[in-house]
């Protein structure tokens, strides 16, 4: 016991002993008075000790519950040592509580602000922590997963293999998987294994990112490059071959020379059309293309006038009649050149595939959120399985036949992006044996729609 504390406890006891001796020696009367005084002193001392003990206990209880209450500055001397030790303990408790709060905040920020799935594993591949995105991708509840093996929480052989490889190699692993929680998505898994002082695996961090759109874009770019190379190579090869033949055999045979030059001209035109379509597609797909466009109100009749003047001869050559079904006053808010190109591409397709001697009808009706411009043909129709992919670049329903008819495979893709840059859309309704109807929606006159 602290000597000072012992002194303060023993002194009252010694005083009481001295008073008791005096009481015995002095006789009953004096003893009675002394006894009363002694009892009063003892009561005051006990009450003060009890009060300070209660204050000290109450303060420590509030601190333990998370309060910021300070300990009493002064207590009975007998409790001073306890107060000092309690103060040191309270300081340690507050520091530990602040550290825990900061750790919780750090984990919350890391889990909620991160747009990727996060899983932390220990050395035995038990889940120490995981955020909601990881649980969604891997198909488990993050709370119930804690303390369990990762392999118990999710059934993904590719993920488990990546984690096992990272632990075995003691490094990093990265690969694409299809997450069991969301089939159809492509998820990139990055595993980073950490080691202890002895070089043994101490745990790992898993990051899971949804890369479905990125991988789809990569495939589209790859397919686009392959298709462009093929589409460019074919006319260039034809042009080169016929020109080389003419150079070798000369121009003595006018009929053969003219036939070869016609082939060269046709392939050069095809090459030019492809380049023009590529440039158009590149423009309407580029970021901020809408901001660079000049928009104006234009009547649908004016757009139809341009299409008929441009494509009327091609329709007449096959006995196809172009008709209209639209109000003369109906107008759209669009870039005139792009609107003409979009409608022209639809009409050109209709002429290309329609049966000779039939009708291609151009129509327009007002809808709640735009003007629907329709191009209806009486061609053979399009099988239903092709409709979802019809507006993809270079997608063809009948590849060989399309090339013979002179299409680049980009016309409908251009129409789709022209519609998008105006904040509209493009739809198709078709079935075998009953022709096709393409519907292009553009904003009403006076509108300023954003894509």
Structure description:
This protein has helices at residues 3-26, 28-64, 80-113, 132-138, 142-145, 150-153, 157-169, 212-249, 254-285, 300-317, 336-353, 399-404, 411-421, and strands spanning 117-122, 127-130, 172-177, 187-195, 201-210, 296-299, 321-325, 331-334, 359-367, 370-376, 425-430, 436-442. It has 451 residues and is of the alpha+beta class. The protein folds into four domains: 3-104, no CATH class; 115-210, Beta-Lactamase; 224-285, Signal transduction histidine kinase, dimerisation/phosphotransfer (DHp) domain (Helix Hairpins, Orthogonal Bundle); 292-442, Heat Shock Protein 90, CATH 3.30.565. The strands form three sheets. Strands 2-1-5-4-3 form a five-stranded antiparallel β-sheet. The protein has a five-stranded mixed β-sheet with strand order 7-9-10-12-11, covered by helices on one side. The chain has a two-stranded antiparallel sheet with strand order 6-8. A hairpin with a 2-residue loop joins β9 (359-367) and β10 (370-376). α1 (3-26) packs antiparallel against α2 (28-64) and α9 packs parallel to α13 (411-421). The chain is elongated and about 140 Å long. Residues 1-24 have low confidence and may be disordered.
